[in-house]
Amino acid sequence: MKTQYTIKELNALILACIEFTDRAGEDFYAEIIAPEGVSQDQVRRMMDWVAETDKGLLEYRGFGNDNIEYCRLGLDARQMMSNGGLT
Predict the structure, then answer these.
(1) What is the model's pLDDT at position 21?
(2) In sequence order, what are the residues at sequence separation of 6 or more whose Cβ sits closer than 8 angstroms to the Cβ of residue 72?
(3) Is the pTM here over 0.90, yes or no?
C-alpha cells in the first residue's frame, strides 16, 4: 500500500479512534481525534484517506446536523490493531 503517511501515523490515528469509541461510543470527527500539536487538517486528510482506502478500518458517515463530517470505527480496526497494527 503506497501512502504519504507513515505506518506510525496511521497506527496512531486508528488507536485514537479506538480510544475515543471506547470512551464515548459515538461517531467522531478529526478535531476530537487529533492529538495535541498535530494539525487537525492533516488528521482530517488522513481519516479521509483511510476511509476511502479501507472501510474496514474507518467508515465515512457524512455530514452531521452540525455540518461536520463524521467517521466511525470500522469492523476490522480492533482486530488489526490487536494483531500489531499496519505493517
Answers:
(1) 95
(2) 21, 27, 28, 58, 59, 61
(3) no
